[in-house]
Amino acid sequence: MIHNFNSRGGGGGGGAGVNDEDKKFQNALSEAIITEKPNVKWTDVAGLVNAKKALQEAVILPIKFPEIFKGARKPWKGILLYGPPGTGKTFLAKACATEADGTFFSISSSDLISKYVGESEKLIKTLFRLAREKKPSIIFIDEIDSLCGSRSDGENDATRRVKTEFLVQMQGVGKDDEGILVLGATNIPWGLDPAIRRRFERRIYIPLPDYEGRLFLVKHNLKDTPNTITDKEMEIIAEKIDGFSGSDISIFVRDAVFEPVRKIQNANYYQEVIIDGKKRQKPVSDDMAGKPKVKQMKLIDVDPNELLIPEVSMVRIYLNYFCDFFLE
């Protein structure tokens, strides 16, 4: 989102000027309101059983069954998702946005920081005011450490005021904050200002995926790509990639499914085959030269309608990623 605040709000001090300024800040934050559900279900989140249960308890149930949360059993006002990069913190937030019946604000530090003095604080104030008007509301702030890092002596006044305003709004003194949840995500919780960290009463650790989670992610990422990988081979892959994050696994699979593309790019010979009554050109190795129906040609010479794209196989994945295991 781009905040080019060329208008400075008049300076007349009249009621119309204040309303115009409020409208300006509301417009600046309008794109942060998720109007269309991201269509990410809890079942799309691999593993993380405990994290999903904790979020359902803290996010979904208070909105759907408010009568449960009476007396000392009050809903959490702040929840912090923390853990290594690429483990699914933002993905979990998308699942919350899909499953929760309420207004979901997706915010980054760039949405709340303005180059004009005092406008960052007003953006934060407007954000919480909108959340109160549209409650039940969830305010999701990704990479919250970039907005609310630890305060230091050398910090400039503008940055300090932003953090102070955020603290005041999260505290909600004198305001009805029932039905408002602030959901933060960070890779470095120790980098948060201690006062901000204390406002996040519930903290949920999002770990690297376990074996079951890795297996789910491998299958999920390969499901739409033709392949010859068996369930047993999927299990072997899941074992070998222990220590990979969800993001690592996604990149790993994406690179693997590009192997057939590399094969057809590097092929010097293609063999004519008939599949389902249609003529296709299949890339073959150089030692097939001279064999029946094998022609010397490059990819650029093949009719796009006749190209037979090889399926992803376990052999290709092994050659790319697991050669070191053969050498042990």
Structure description:
This protein has 328 residues and is α/β, with parallel strands linked by helices. The chain folds into 2 domains: 15-205, P-loop containing nucleotide triphosphate hydrolases (Rossmann fold, 3-Layer(aba) Sandwich); 211-326, Orthogonal Bundle (Helicase, Ruva Protein, domain 3). Helix content is 41%, strand content 14%. It has helices at residues 15-29, 49-64, 89-99, 109-112, 119-133, 157-171, 194-199, 211-222, 231-240, 246-257, 259-266, 314-321, 323-326, and strands at 33-34, 78-82, 103-107, 137-141, 180-186, 202-205, 269-275, 278-284, 294-296. It has a 6-stranded mixed beta sheet. Helix 1 packs across helix 5 (119-133), helix 8 (211-222) packs across helix 9 (231-240) and helix 8 packs parallel to helix 10 (246-257). The radius of gyration is 27 Å and the shape is elongated.
The tally of domains stands at 2
Biggest beta-sheet profile: 6 strands, mixed
Series of H and E elements: HEHEHEHHEHEHEHHHHEEEHH
Tally of DSSP β-strands: 9
- Which percent range fits the helix content? 40-55%
The CATH superfamily of the largest domain is P-loop containing nucleotide triphosphate hydrolases
The average pLDDT is 81
Strand content: 5-15%
Classification by helices and strands: alpha/beta
